[in-house]
Amino acid sequence: MAPLMTALRRDMNRLQDIISAVDDSLSQEAPSSESLQMDKSDMENLLNEMCDKITKLIVSGIFPRDWKMAVITPIPKDGDHEQANNNRPISLLPILSKVCERTVHNRMIPYSYTKQRLSTQQNGNRRFHSTETSLIETTDSILNAINGKELTAVVLLDMSKAFDSIDHNILLLKLQDVGVSPAALNWFSSYLSERFQVVRINTVLSDKLPVNSGVPQGSILGPILFNIYVNELPTIPQSSLSKMYVDDNKLSLTFPIQQCASAITEMNKDLCKIRDWCFDNHLLNASKTKLMVFGSRQMILKVPDFHLSLLGKELIPVQTAKDLGVTFDSSLSFDCHVVKTVSSCMSSLAQINRVKHVLDKSLLVLGALYHLVRSQALSEVVSFFLSASMSPVKPTAPGVSSTMNVTPTPSGTLTIEDPQNPSTSQIASSVMSMAAQQQYPSSTLSFTPSRTHQPVR
Questions:
Q1: 376 and 293 assigned to the same domain
Q2: Within a 13 Å sphere around the CA of 314, how many CA atoms are in the beta-carbon half?
Q3: Order of strands, edge to edge, in the sheet holding 248-255?
Q4: Which of 230, 271, 333, 402 has its CA 20 to 30 Å from the CA of residue 117?
């Protein structure tokens, strides 16, 4: 096994690595804390010097202090945005720090996965894996159980502020466990230590404060470091199956209805093991953890009291819960999710309707409308939602006709009809037609309207 540092030393002299790191860093969704006022062609003149500097820093185990200052921009989440807990702290970092991180990241990822150092139960921050693959795995497993006349209990574990709660000393030990060499550990120790941050709201900056735990959200290395930190978590349960998408962890167990009592016992044992692991690693928020029991409608009615316990809190099954942006219900019909999504989409269309007098029906407008609809309603796993709910959906958004129907058709397209407003139907149908003809490269609007389920292999 070639240590990570050996690979870094061998490959850091490749100028193309640095060029790629610069390109990737400049194109990140999270901007840097400084602007780079030069063309990429001009930067190539500095790449040789930059390559030498980054190589020396990594080999010597040093991450410059000037690169450790993060400017935090709060991004609102759900709830009252005046409350700090309802905002996501995105770190804006110096450009050169992101270039250096990207260089290490580009070597760390292939090393970690080709050497099979990271858990295959983690779908987050992995190539060819996404929220879609995670949701497909969950849905496929539950549907298989329903087809086999079994129940599936799922505990949605919440790890609030997981990225901010990482203990640096524990992380360094875990890096050592996955095979990072002592020389590389020195660099990671320097990278994690003596970090500072300020919070910026509009043009106002807070005082500078030290960061003694966690990894910066918005950094290049943050996601892979978090994956390493929680790497052994899926192996903790003995009877249940643990699946993760970054910090979203699902604990599931499939069982026949006659074995509800033993399933409760086994899941409680696994929850105790996870509780102990989370205590040791400073993670877990029991207050937001939820329990769902999935099965056919007939079987759900026969389920006896299925209660679990975590940190003294009784977990009672809920009828619906959101996982990775998707609202699941106990019979896996997705009716609730479809209704909410269509309502949200119709609300957006109503806002467009209020300003339609300043718009025309050009391709640009249709394209904008298409992207609006796709981003809200036609998500990566639309096939599951619409194939599970074959009846027309009645939107209830304010300002939108209640006569509008959104109906899946046998040919695998959507029919949108509004007898009271034919122009709305015409525009919406044009959008769907453009998507079906794949005039937009990212179009994923087709689906298979069938209740017959084939397991994903």
A1: no
A2: 4
A3: 241-245, 248-255, 151-157, 290-294
A4: 271
Packing angle, helices 422-436 and 335-354, rounded to 10: 120
What is the domain range of residue 383? 335-388
Rounded-to-integer distance, Cα 310 and Cα 298, Å: 28
**CA distances (Å), 260 to each of 99, 107, 255, in order?**
53, 47, 7
Rg over CA atoms, the chain: 25
Q: Tens-digit pLDDT profile for the chain (457 aa)?
A: 345 555 554 444 454 555 565 556 555 545 554 444 555 566 566 677 777 788 888 888 899 999 999 898 888 877 667 777 777 788 888 888 888 898 888 888 888 877 778 888 888 877 788 888 888 888 888 999 999 999 999 999 877 678 888 999 999 999 998 888 888 899 999 999 999 999 988 888 888 899 999 888 888 899 899 999 999 999 999 999 999 888 888 999 999 999 999 999 999 999 999 989 988 888 876 677 899 999 998 888 888 788 898 877 888 898 999 888 888 988 888 888 878 877 777 777 777 677 666 666 555 555 566 555 555 555 544 444 444 444 444 444 443 444 444 444 555 444 445 555 555 455 455 544 544 444 433 333 333 333 344 433 3
The whole-angstrom separation of Cα 395 and Cα 110 is: 46
Q: Residue 357: inside a domain, yes or no? A: yes
Q: Contact at 8 Å (CB) between 292 and 332?
A: no
Q: Within a 13 Å sphere around the CA of 388, how many CA atoms are in the beta-carbon half?
A: 21
Separation CA 142–CA 250 (nearest Å): 13
CA 388 to CA 246: how far, in whole Å? 27
Same-domain status, 231 and 196:
yes
Establish how many alpha carbons lie within 13 A of residue 180's alpha carbon, considering only the half-sphere containing its beta carbon: 24
Q: How far is CA 262 from CA 272, 285, 347, in A?
A: 15, 26, 46
In-domain check, residue 456: no
